[in-house]
Amino acid sequence: MTTPPATETPRAGGCQCGTIQFTVTGDPDYPHACSCPHCQRLSGAPMMSWVSFPLGGLTWNGGSEPTWHYTWPDSRRGFCPACGSQLCALDDGATSIAVTLSALGNPPDLIPVHQSFRDTAVPWLTQVTDTRHHPDR
Q: Which residues are paired to 77 by β-bridges?
């Protein structure tokens, strides 16, 4: 598995209804799937998929920003208050922001390389194959 290419070309994303739109630039980092109970409940699905970008490369477009909800003591999720789409996650003090691959339109060059919280994954869905070691995860 190769690392996604570095790019300063903006990637566009947003919620289902279009109320919240954003662009991200910079190196995409650690595309992965997560099966934690928080991701499962927030998405209504067996897992969510994420990729991080430098926080300084994020721009909210169109005048709307997500509504934030803390799901861990130091980590909050951003979602659209109009349609409920889960868009991003931001840890307190972080220099990067995780955005959902779904909010980016599931770009073909960002393929999950790991699955977090395998112990709470549903047993009927094949887990994501680990293709890259990330020392912080």
A: 69, 89
